[in-house]
């Protein structure tokens, strides 16, 4: 089993840059489709292998088979779309050093990010017990889903940023404009998710896992709130990557991890999983929000105050209105049921979408919506 997995890792490793090449060409639809095909083939082959009774080894083998098929798809696509052939024997010592340096910083970022949610349960096991681990795990799983929805544009603008900074028609001054445009869209999406969750999340947890996990609701809020600042600023993080200054991202993540884990150990001794949630909130606020905003301002010369004015401040009305409407709904709809939860979510979403359209979105942001409505009417 290990030999199959190891062989697949060796074979597939040289093809890791294929995803970067596809994204650099802005072929996002194919990229997402290929990844979806990979997952679907993996599931289909596994089900088929189990039905045919091939055993545990076959599950590892089918993963390798589906992965190789998708690699073939990507190679064929690039061969057709990209006129630049793949130079299999190309070697550049300077480029290798740059790639190694970049990879080290990216590895540090990945390790720091995983440390927080991976080690926190272990800390809770030492200081608070298994019940608090379960409470925190429920909260972190929901936070993961919310993060996936809110960061839907993550990485998609790296080619655009690279063109603005280094292309033939480079225009570094347009970075701030792009950051504001994308940030407003990301904030309006995340604002809807967070505001509705704050109002309906408690009912959801009570109906899903029961009263024993009520604290998970509070912890989830602590985990997602810093995202209202950091997620709309992802273009800034992308600029640091494009300009080979990813070390600043890494330093930020290290600070987040150190603060979060240190405070988690201290606070969880008295407050359990809630203390860990507060610790991660403080870590993300200091390392992820405050430090990164200083970096964007000093290193990238971005006017952060203008960004906040055009993004968070100018688009806060729908968020506030949904919160007050949610309070009224919670006062009148007190019976705990999935039906009432659905009514609340639907009502709040309609109110958020309506107020966002008339009170927050500008003409540039309204045009795609109007075009979609016209197509539906026709």
TrEMBL record:
The keyword Transmembrane helix applies. The chain crosses the membrane at residues 44-71, 102-124, 144-166, 187-205, 217-242, 254-272, 278-296, 317-335, 341-360. It is a multi-pass membrane protein. Its main location: membrane. Keywords: Cell membrane, Membrane, Transmembrane, Transmembrane helix. InterPro entries: Poly_Biosynth_Transport. GO terms for cellular component: plasma membrane. It is found in: Cell membrane. This is Polysaccharide biosynthesis protein C-terminal domain-containing protein.
């Amino acid at each position: 089993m290990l030999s199959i997995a190891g062989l697949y890792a060796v074979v597939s490793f040289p093809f890791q840059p294929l995803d970067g090449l596809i994204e650099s060409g802005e072929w996002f639809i194919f990229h997402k489709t290929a990844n979806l095909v990979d997952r679907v083939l993996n599931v289909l082959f596994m089900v088929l292998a189990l039905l045919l009774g091939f055993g545990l080894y076959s599950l590892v083998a089918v993963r390798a088979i589906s992965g190789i098929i998708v690699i073939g798809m990507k190679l064929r696509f690039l061969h057709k779309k990209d006129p630049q052939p793949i130079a299999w024997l190309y070697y550049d010592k300077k480029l290798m050093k740059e790639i190694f340096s970049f990879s080290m910083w990216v590895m540090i970022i990945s390790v720091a990010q995983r440390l927080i949610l991976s080690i926190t349960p272990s800390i809770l096991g030492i200081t608070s017990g298994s019940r608090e681990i379960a409470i925190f795990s429920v909260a972190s799983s929901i936070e993961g889903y919310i993060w996936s929805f809110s960061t839907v544009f993550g990485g998609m603008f790296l080619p655009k940023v690279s063109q603005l900074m280094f292309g033939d028609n480079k225009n570094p001054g347009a970075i701030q404009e792009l950051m504001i445009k994308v940030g407003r869209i990301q904030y309006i999406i995340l604002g809807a998710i967070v505001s509705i969750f704050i109002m309906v999340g408690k009912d959801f947890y009570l109906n899903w896992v029961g009263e024993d996990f009520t604290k998970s609701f509070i912890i989830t809020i602590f985990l997602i709130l810093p995202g209202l600042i950091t997620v709309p600023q992802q273009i800034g993080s992308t600029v640091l990557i494009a300009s080979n200054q990813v070390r600043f991202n890494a330093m930020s993540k290290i600070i987040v991890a150190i603060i979060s884990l240190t405070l988690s150990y201290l606070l969880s001794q008295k407050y359990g999983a809630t203390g860990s949630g507060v610790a991660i909130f403080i870590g993300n606020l200091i390392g992820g929000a405050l430090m990164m905003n200083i970096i964007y301002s000093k290193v990238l010369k971005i006017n952060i105050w203008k960004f906040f004015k055009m993004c968070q401040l100018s688009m806060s009305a729908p968020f506030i209105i949904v919160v007050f409407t949610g309070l009224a709904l919670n006062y009148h709809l007190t019976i705990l049921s999935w039906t009432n939860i659905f009514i609340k979510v639907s009502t709040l979403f309609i109110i958020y979408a309506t107020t966002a359209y008339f009170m927050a979105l500008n003409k540039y942001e309204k045009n795609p919506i109007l075009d979609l409505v016209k197509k539906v009417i026709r």
